[in-house]
Specification:
287 residues, alpha/beta, Nucleotidyltransferase, domain 5, five-stranded mixed sheet, two-stranded antiparallel ribbon, 11% strand, elongated
């Protein structure tokens, strides 16, 4: 079926899983490299104090107490250093989670068709299911679905989250675990012109094509911090970031000639099955 409709643009934003889940996934912290770690849990040994020629009981007692105080202070400092190091390791681990389907979840899915719509429901599976239903309907109607780096991130991520949540993604979207349906158009791939692993950020491409640029107050890596903030201004900044991504992707797609007719991409090697279904997984999910 031929279609002359405008492309459906989409983009996803992700956020780390809850801290309890991440702590189970994070590599074990090794405290043994922390200074004075070996003192923790070890009682002070009075026999280690050297009094020299001192015979005065008060001076000897004062020296003993001084050594005990230094021992306890070293333990306290080591415990503090361990706590800070653990927190730092967790923060760095969490900061890198948003690209992993095992360590993060979908925070929002933005759409740009006739108008921009952002789905940011608490129910992650409800968001993903709606996404699959929407793009399958669009593809079955002969339209195309467009995004930037969707072959390298968005679509694989959504498929993995679908499996991890206990379901199957629609059949026919990916052939031989390699070739995407010809109606799923990646502007980064179009710009790459067949060059292997030609990565170009949306912001750089939009600037090069003179169609706009991303806002400076939020970055994709820390979208979730603004998105989950209790401050309305930060929350709105996150929503504006996603809206801008959708607008830029639409502008880039138009500039590259991606016009909504999937017949332009008949050279793609992918073929879809006639039937598309989303079924609950039986058995274990990936870990």
């Amino acid at each position: 079926m031929k279609s002359t409709c405008s492309p459906l643009i989409f983009d996803i934003e992700t956020m780390p899983l809850d801290d309890e889940s991440l702590l189970r996934l994070m590599p074990s912290f090794d405290p043994t490299k922390i200074k004075d770690y070996e003192l923790i849990g070890v009682p002070f040994d009075d026999s280690t104090v050297k009094y020299g020629q001192t015979r005065d009981p008060e001076k000897r007692a004062a020296k003993l107490q001084d050594r005990k105080d230094k021992h306890n202070a070293a333990i306290t400092a080591a415990q503090t250093a361990i706590r800070i190091a653990e927190q730092d390791q967790f923060r760095k681990f969490k900061d890198k989670c948003c690209l992993s389907a095992r360590k993060s979840r979908v925070a929002a899915i933005g759409y740009n068709g006739k108008k921009i719509h952002i789905d940011c429901r608490e129910d992650e599976w409800a968001m993903i299911l709606s996404f699959w239903q929407l793009i399958v309907a669009r593809l079955d109607n002969g339209g195309i679905v467009v995004g930037h780096n969707i072959h390298g991130f968005d679509l694989p991520y959504l498929m993995r989250r679908t499996w991890l949540l206990g379901y199957h993604p629609p059949s026919g979207l990916l052939s031989e675990n390699r070739y995407w349906h010809r109606g799923l158009v990646d502007t980064m791939t179009v710009w790459g012109c067949g060059e292997y692993k030609k990565f170009t950020s949306l912001d750089n491409l939009a600037r090069a094509l003179k169609v706009g640029k991303k806002p400076a107050d939020v970055s994709g890596a820390f979208f979730w911090e603004f998105f989950t903030s209790s401050e309305p201004a930060k929350r709105e900044a996150a929503m504006n970031y996603l809206r801008t991504d959708l607008e830029l992707t639409a502008a880039v797609a138009e500039r590259l000639g991606v016009n909504g007719k999937k017949e332009r991409y008949e050279h793609d090697r992918t073929q879809r099955d006639d039937t598309v279904g989303i079924n609950q997984t039986t058995g274990d999910t990936a870990t």
